[in-house]
């Protein structure tokens, strides 16, 4: 087995998944070029649909990650309390 845990026999599953994701994202961006008007509180601005969708998806992923971190932290605190009695 080669260094880094791969056998050196080509691309790994992660690399293939990443390239597939980039390809799908490129197709999505090419097909969704129309502009959308975004209104939030007092602000109003126009963005391409593909950019709006990506920004919303990234924001959702960050929130999801943050909630996962909070959950793990709470479980860790609870386990420490149980050990201390």
What does this structure look like?
Helix content is 65%, strand content 14%. It has two helices and two strands. The longest helix has 36 residues, at 49-84. The protein has a domain at 35-85. It has a two-stranded antiparallel ribbon. With 85 residues, the chain is α+β, with helices and mostly antiparallel strands. InterPro entries: LapA_dom. Keywords: Cell membrane, Membrane, Transmembrane, Transmembrane helix. Pfam families: LapA_dom (PF06305). The chain crosses the membrane at residues 12-30, 50-70.
Number of strands: 2
Low-confidence stretches: none
Radius of gyration: 21 Å
The class by helix and strand makeup works out as alpha+beta
Query: How can the largest sheet be summarized?
Result: 2 strands, antiparallel
Query: Can you give the helix content as a percent range?
Result: 55-70%
State the order of secondary-structure elements, H for helix, E for strand: HEEH
* Percentage of residues in strands: 5-15%
The pLDDT mean sits at 84
Specify the overall morphology. Answer: flat
Q: Give the neighbour order of strands across the main sheet.
A: 1-2
State the distance separating the first and last CA atoms: 46 Å
- Total count of helical runs of at least 4 residues: 2
